[in-house]
Structures are given as C-alpha cells and as structure tokens.
Specification:
- This protein is mainly α and 104 residues long.
- It has one domain.
- The protein has 3 helices and 2 strands, in the order ββααα.
- A hairpin with a 2-residue loop joins β1 and β2.
- The relative contact order is 0.08.
- The mean pLDDT is 79.
C-alpha cells in the first residue's frame, strides 16, 4: 500500500499555508513558468538595448556622411539587409572609414 502524500506547509506574508500535494505541484510548476518568462523578458530587454545601440551607431554614421557622398551611396545599400549589414555597407562605401567590428 503506497504512503499517502504529505501536505506541504509554507509561510506567505506571515501566515502558514498548508498545501495539498497537487497544489504544491501546481505552485512549483507556476514558479518554473514564471522563471522562464522572466528569463525571456531579460533576453528581450538585452536585444532591445542592443538594437538601440546599433540604431544610435547607424544614426551617428549616417549623420556624418557628407551630402556629396550620399548620392554615391544611393543604390549600394543592399535591400532587405539587417541593421548590422547596413552599417557594414555604409562603412565599405565610405572612403577612409576603417571597418571596425561592432560590439554586441
């Protein structure tokens, strides 16, 4: 005969709460899901910060292009490329601009 499952106790805001094994399992599952969601949000924030840094760099590069060189760049930037590719295209098209890797 299997042993009956033990009830779990926990303290919540100073109050002792008794959980059935099913409630405890559901609570642990919810905690794991929350942890996964928090990790996903952290990754999304990191991606957003990286995107913002790349956008600032793109704006800085584009603002530094003299008007006479803008016509030369027209049509040279590959369609459908990401921002990193766009920055590489701009750097490659500008004379005397070293191709420095972007920190990610």
């Amino acid at each position: 005969m299997p042993k009956p499952a033990k009830h779990r106790t926990m303290t919540l805001d100073g109050v002792v709460v008794v959980l059935t094994p099913e409630q405890h399992a559901a609570l642990e599952s919810a905690r794991r899901q929350l942890g996964g969601a928090q990790a996903q949000v952290a990754r999304m924030r990191s991606d957003l910060q990286r995107g913002r840094r790349l956008l600032v760099e793109a704006e800085r590069i584009l603002a530094g292009i003299p008007a006479d060189q803008l016509a030369r760049l027209d049509g040279r930037l590959g369609p459908g490329r990401g921002l990193t590719g766009l920055l590489a295209d701009i750097r490659a098209a500008l004379p005397g601009t070293p191709d420095t890797p972007t920190r990610t």
